[in-house]
Amino acid sequence: MYTSLSNRRSFIKKMATLSAMTAAATMFPGILFAEEQEKNIPDNGDIDWKKGPCRFCGVGCGILVGVQDGKAVAVKGDPKSSVNKGLLCVKGYHQIMCTQAADRLEYALVKKNGTYVKTPINEALDIVANKMKSTIEKHGKDSVAMYTSGQSTIPEGYVASKFMKGAIGTNNLDCNARLCMASAVAGFLTTFGADEPMGCYEDIEHADYFITWGNNMAEMHPVLFSRMLEQKHSRGAKIIDFATRTSRSSMGSTKSILFEPQTDLAVANAICYEIINNGWMNKKFVEEHINFSKGLTKMGYGLEDNYKFKDKPSKISFEDYKTFLNDYTPKKVAKYSKVSVKDIKFLASIYGDPNIKVMSLWCMGVNQHTRGTWMNNLIYNMHLLTGKISQPGNSPFSLTGQPSACGTAREVGTFTHKLPKGVVMNEKHRKLAAKIWKVPYERIPSKPTYHATEMFRAVDRGDIKFIWTQVTNPLVSLPKTSRYRPGMEKDSCFVVVSDVFPTPTSDVADVILPASWHIEKSGLYGNSERRTQHWDQMVEGPGDTTPDAWMTIEVAKRMGYGDLFPYSKENHVEEIYNEYRQFHEGAKHGMAPLDVLKEKSGVIWPYVNGKSTQWRFNAQYDPACDNGKDFHFYGKPDGKAIIWQRPFEPAPEKPDNEYPFWLNTGRVVEHWHTGSMTRRIPVLHKAMPNAYVEFHPDDAKALGVSNGQNVKVISRRGECTLPASINERGLPTKGQVFVPFFDENMLINDVTIDAFCPISKEPDYKKCAVRIEKA
Amino acid sequence: MPIKSYLAHPHEGQKEELINALKAFEDCDIIPAKNQDLVIVVTDTPTQQEDDLIKEKIEAIDSLRLLAMVSGFNTPQND
Questions:
Q1: Which ipTM was obtained for this model?
Q2: Looking at chain A, which residue has its C-alpha nearest residue B33?
Q3: Residue A623 pLDDT
Q4: Number of domains within chain A
Q5: What was the pLDDT predicted at A752?
Q6: CATH number of the CATH domain containing A19
Q7: Which of A50, A277, A572, A607 sits 20 to 30 Å CA-CA off A15?
Q8: Each residue of B10-55: pLDDT tens digit?
């Protein structure tokens, strides 16, 4: 289907098809066209179909890539994958087209006298290694940093962690999953002591209600949304969309409930109030399996450099918690949340009815929140109060944004505080890492250093003198890029960018390393439902392109750490995975052997005695439960999960006379994050060529703004000019504007605020104050 | 050389009949939705006259409830 692109007529047909699919998706959110995958695939029978996971979101759809004469010619959904059952979204089945982009980075580029010079890869890696080594010698090991990705493969994340923490001995490693999943991680750890969802996608086939919290699944997780829609149509399951903006998901839902930004905290507490005061609490479950705790409040928002926060949890009684909830009666909360008492009671009744199975689903609306950890805790509170957890169909389900935010960032641990098992602060965990890595345990520092936002602040301040980014585009995706772009341009920091395409981040690099794309290397990803998926290299990459893992290994060798990285170029993925698996041995997180992963379309961990554990913490399904009870939250020392007392607190910045609108940012179905891949896929780029700013029609009218007219979105940090969009893709509430962030020519993150959740350190991209001016 | 795309909505329970009827047309590609009662139709005809004709034929299909055009392009013949 892709060789035909050279033919303009064929391309126009493709455009006509995509236009129709886009129109259909507007009318029927979650609609899928499986047969589109088969169209125009050469049918001469010599295509070799190779399995792997999709390159894009955290759903982790299985794909089959058709390879003919050494070239990828087609993509279709893998019918053997239980995730997508042969279906794919519009991004999924056009994914390989980006590799044909004319501006593909095929060779290393080294900046010499202000000009990029094509350089042999070995010479470029010499330069990187020498610079990193000399920087450490001159300024110390904490003057160098790596910033990686939830799109890095498991082996890529693993060697980055081993290199920085085990070889060099610095915790200056963080990743872009900090920007999307850190609050989910902190939520899991504070409530359960164990990261990642207890349930799995099969919950969708069992649930009676799906409540989506600030989550536009029809565009961000379209295949999962289609599975929910199928349940809605086939057996009457209900979808309740709880959000701050009317989106395609709202249109596909049974009911849409809108709330004032930030007040989800209050509504969640009001639901808990109703559950308790209506006698809907599952007393037996709570008595046997739950502790109650509270933490510090009024924590601030991390707006100042070097901000520090450490929570001080303390146990409380159920009666304390019940008293706390008196501030969150539906009547009180309705006043500032703009959610009616009736709707709050309706939501509570869904969680409260013992005969209803309910899934809560959330992603960036909850996580990218200055109280993101609290919001995750509060969703778990509703499920824990009612005992609706760890059973088919009763499932609080934190969705993931990136394809391996779970597998790499969270499980391998490419955050500053993480190790492949556990955290750097824990001596036992450091000793285990040191043993497997064969390094002195004293080399692994016990204190975390920079989380993502603070890492780029440190670059701006001149504290970090060398930074290497892999598989990520921070100068489009960070909040407040208006500060961090000039910071990265400073001569005080040597910047190495490893990527597949040029980006605004590679524009400021001193060395650009040409990375292999997805199917040009072997790898493993881990998706939202704890499913690890392996793929073998399918095609050769062009020029000097090299897998990121191998570039890290080569630099490590050049810096004198070769004995720690004894892997072979041909087989390093397998060798690294087998080493990594040692960290997770046991019933709580055992991972499938590679030969099993090679055979199957992904395997869910814990993988125990040849079987996946679909529902953790439930003794009926989880062999790690050993407390003799029906449930065992074994992540916590006493086996009990925690219901957290978390109050409503306002956003750090809200609309005022000078900046009267909320700004909400997000994504669109056609583009993957910062658009560096999907904007190079012609049909996707044509379908959504540029960003825009959505208005409520009343606001547009009051401002005298018409559809398509250019306006400036201005905050205290910066401005961005975009065309207005009125009554098109989405509909913000009055007093709010929405802008997607995929467009590097319209950098809305120059406008956003770099406030973050003090516990998770995840920024809030969903709320800041802006004003609008005609351009 | 017109290329047009349409959303074809079948009468209730007649999606398969509609697909089969559309398959009979040579200048017409069809992409049925997997999970909704909807079929995307893309027509590719040599002349405007033939484009009008195929539209007429599609609209005459009994199982078709509604045909809504989404996009239309006209390209030079030798492209």
A1: 0.93
A2: A33
A3: 98
A4: 4
A5: 98
A6: 2.20.25.90
A7: A50
A8: 998 999 999 999 998 888 889 998 888 899 999 999 888 898 999 9
CB-CB neighbors (< 8 A) of B46 in chain A:
none
A529 in any annotated domain? yes
Average pLDDT over residues A220-247: 94
Query: Helices A182-192 and A372-386, interaxial angle, to 10°?
Result: 40
| Distance separating alpha carbons of residues A509 and A78, to the nearest angstrom | 38
Q: How many CB pairs under 8 A join A and B?
A: 84
Q: Is A36 on the interface with B (CB under 8 A)?
A: yes
Minimum distance, in Å, between the CA of residue A90 and any CA atom of chain B: 13
In a domain, A622, yes or no: no
Element (H, E) at A123: helix A121-139
Q: What is the pLDDT of residue A39?
A: 56
Looking at residue A340, its amino acid is: S
Regarding whether A408 and A283 lie in a shared domain, the answer is no
- A192, part of any domain: yes
- State which residues form the domain around A50: 3-100
**Three-class DSSP category at A772:** strand
Same domain flag for A89 and A162: no
HEC sequence for chain B:
CEEEEEEEEECCCCHHHHHHHHHCCCCEEEEECCCCCCEEEEEECCCHHHHHHHHHHHHCCCCEEEEEEEEEEECCCCC
**The two structure tokens encoding residue A322:** 């019940």
| Domain ranges within chain B, ordered by starting residue | 2-37+45-62
Does A6 score more than 50 pLDDT?
no
Average pLDDT over residues A212-218: 96
Q: Are residues A503 and A465 in the same domain?
A: yes
Residue tagged active-site, from A1, A57, A180, A625? A180
- A715-766 per-position pLDDT tens digit: 999 999 999 999 999 999 999 999 999 999 999 999 999 999 999 999 999 9
Smallest CA-to-CA distance from A375 within A770, A38, A766 is with: A766
* A467 neighbors A147 (Cβ within 8 angstroms): yes
